């Protein structure tokens, strides 16, 4: 299974209306190529609407309501950016619960672009080295993160990307983290 290192693994993708479509579709494509199953989790009703090139984009079907989502049911989490989506996720208690559960468990997490700012909102940024969109930089630094002007940063099982430009390299690291991750070991810790 060298060519499909994530066969049998399921990755949650946390979305809200207004997410950056390319920050979702590019990681999804890489994960499927690696053999993973991706599941869209969201509070949107049935379909979630992306943002593409300055206007509303495509609709994508929801696989699981965020209120019913547990980190333990997944092998990793991807959170695409998009200011509209990030604002909604920051106010959604279930999004906070799920993201915190993944990060605290040390599970593989990739956060892209504006969404990296959620680490600051949820008080998970202090002491971390990250990258993000330029718009989230001040918020992250104010929350105690060390921000780097690069396409992606990998720190433990947390991979952050500056945006679409950093997705490909970030997903290489994320796939490696998920392939080596054993959720049962994390639960025992």
Description of the molecule:
- With 189 residues, the chain is an alpha/beta fold.
- It has a single domain, classed as 3-Layer(aba) Sandwich (Rossmann fold), CATH 3.40.50.
- 38% of the residues lie in helices and 25% in strands.
- The protein is built from seven helices and twelve strands.
- The protein has helices at 21-33, 83-91, 93-105, 118-121, 134-142, 164-180, 183-188; strands at 10-14, 19-20, 37-42, 47-52, 55-61, 64-65, 76-79, 109-112, 129-130, 146-147, 152-155, 158-161.
- Strands 6-3-1-7-8-12-11 form a seven-stranded mixed β-sheet, with helices on both faces.
- β4 (47-52) and β5 (55-61) form a beta hairpin.
- The mean pLDDT is 95.
Keywords:
alpha/beta, 38% helix, 189 residues, Rossmann fold, 7 helices, 3-stranded mixed beta sheet
Short description:
With 189 residues, the chain is of the alpha/beta class.
Decide which structural class fits the backbone.
alpha/beta
Taking all Cα atoms into account, the compactness measure Rg is 15 Å
> Topology as H/E string?
EEHEEEEEHHEHEHEEEHH
Query: What would you call the shape?
Result: globular
């Amino acid at each position: 299974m060298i060519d499909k290192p994530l066969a049998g693994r399921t990755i949650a993708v946390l979305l809200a209306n207004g997410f950056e479509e390319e920050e979702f579709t590019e990681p999804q494509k890489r994960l499927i190529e690696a053999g993973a199953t991706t599941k869209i989790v969201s509070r949107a009703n049935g379909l979630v609407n992306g943002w593409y090139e300055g206007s509303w984009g495509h609709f994508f079907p929801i696989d699981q309501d965020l209120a019913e989502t547990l980190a333990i049911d997944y092998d990793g989490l991807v959170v695409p950016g998009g200011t509209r989506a990030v604002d909604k996720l920051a106010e959604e208690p279930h999004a906070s619960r799920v993201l915190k559960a993944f990060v605290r468990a040390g599970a593989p997490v990739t956060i892209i672009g504006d969404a990296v700012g959620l680490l600051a909102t949820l008080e998970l940024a202090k002491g971390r080295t990250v990258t993000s969109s330029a718009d989230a930089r001040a918020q992250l630094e104010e929350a105690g993160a060390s921000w780097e002007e690069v396409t992606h940063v990998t720190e433990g099982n947390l991979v952050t990307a500056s945006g679409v430009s950093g997705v490909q390299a970030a997903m290489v690291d994320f796939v490696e983290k998920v392939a080596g991750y054993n959720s049962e070991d994390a639960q025992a810790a």
